Amino acid sequence: MQSIVLETRSLTKTFRGSEARALDKVAVRIPRGCVYGLLGPNGAGKSTLLKIITGMMRPDEGEVLFEGKPWQRQDLRRTGVLIETPPIYDNLSARENLLVRTTVLGLPKSRIDEVLEIVELTDTGKKRAGKFSLGMKQRLGIAAALLPDPDLLILDEPTNGLDPFGIQQLRAMLRGFADRGMTVLISSHILGEVEQMADHIGILAGGVLGYQGGMPGRGHLEELFGKVVEKNRRGGWQA
């Protein structure tokens, strides 16, 4: 039986001015060493859930457990996070961007070369990050998330804006992380990409986790997704 790296229990969140719950008693269980795809349409609550998991936001009810214990801020040292846009200084090179981060976090500078090699950005030299393509910026953001050598990597919509080749590279990279024992949690609304890389999925719709488990048989994900979304459909809320 696989051990559970991250678990949430009855996470509930309602934002001021909204009658609908952004999250409604959400309970995810993420096994160690897998790629877990958090699926859902826009406004489903995916980003809200990830922000609560990473301590950026507090739930109204419920709790987050990291390796069976209540989540603490120190657990961020074992977690790599990229939510929304990559935190990049456009006027600095890739190496300089990572140097800023290692200095702030007190991490060894030796990790810079290691993560640049992992994301294939070693040959960018002194080129400013502002001149990078969208795919290169995304990889630099992932490199920053990898600096603490995390047990858990959390990525919010990592394929947004990438071309087909960039998506293929990212998919291979994330599968490689999981094959080496890292747990990867990605949120997405692109079913085809998640179907090709995830071992486990959770489908969030209307703030409700309508399905959680292994990947359904090839070609059945779209059908399952449609059923969950239709059952939990609501109007007006955007996460």
From TrEMBL:
- Indicate the segments forming the ABC transporter domain, all copies: 6-231
Please provide the record's keywords in A-Z order: ATP-binding, Nucleotide-binding, Transport
Q: Which SMART domains match?
A: AAA
User: What's a Pfam family this protein contains?
Assistant: ABC_tran
* Keyword field contains RNA-binding: no
Q: Which InterPro entries match?
A: AAA+_ATPase, ABC_Gallidermin_ATP-bd, ABC_transporter-like_ATP-bd, ABC_transporter-like_CS, P-loop_NTPase
PROSITE patterns xref list: ABC_TRANSPORTER_1, ABC_TRANSPORTER_2
- MF terms per GO, please? ATP binding
User: What family does the Swiss-Prot or TrEMBL record give for this protein?
Assistant: Belongs to the ABC transporter superfamily.
Q: Which PANTHER family match?
A: ABC TRANSPORTER, ATP-BINDING PROTEIN (PTHR43335:SF4)
The identity of this protein, by name, is Lantibiotic protection ABC transporter ATP-binding subunit
